[in-house]
Write a structure and sequence with these properties.
Helices cover 45% and strands 24% of the residues. It has a single domain, classed as Transcription Regulator spoIIAA, CATH 3.30.750.24. This is STAS/SEC14 domain-containing protein.
Length: 123
């Protein structure tokens, strides 16, 4: 349902999510995000987040709002740039509705998202 990897040399966290999530998955997911973020602190912190949602269908409002809050936390607390990869037109509509709350860039493919992230200045 999710995998989280980090690239310390780029201060980047890559998150891949898939499937339809029950709300019960959120506490474990959030705990893993915090664990991975803490692991990047010795390298200057998490400054870039790539979220691959290309295999992630429309979610419940609760789960979608949780993702928006997580991305907003990345922007506000971590000062991280976030790129989200989405291929589904319906998922993009849901993401755009949450974009004002979250603050992220949407991409159709990972290569473009990664290039944009790596072009962001180190903070």
């Amino acid at each position: 349902m999710y995998s989280i990897t980090v690239e310390p040399e780029c201060q980047l966290m890559r998150i891949a999510v898939s499937g339809f999530w029950p709300s019960e998955i959120l506490p474990g997911y959030i705990a893993e995000l915090h664990r991975q973020t803490e692991g990047l602190k010795p390298f200057g912190g998490c400054r870039r987040i790539l979220v691959d949602m290309s295999d992630y269908p429309i979610q419940s409002q609760e789960v979608a709002q949780a993702h928006a809050r997580i991305i907003a936390y990345g922007k506000d607390a971590l000062r991280a740039a976030t790129a989200v990869v989405m291929t589904s037109p319906l998922s993009k509509l849901q993401a755009k509705r949450m974009a004002n709350l979250a603050g992220h860039e949407l991409f159709d493919e990972e290569a473009g998202a990664r290039a944009w992230l790596l072009a962001q200045p180190d903070l």
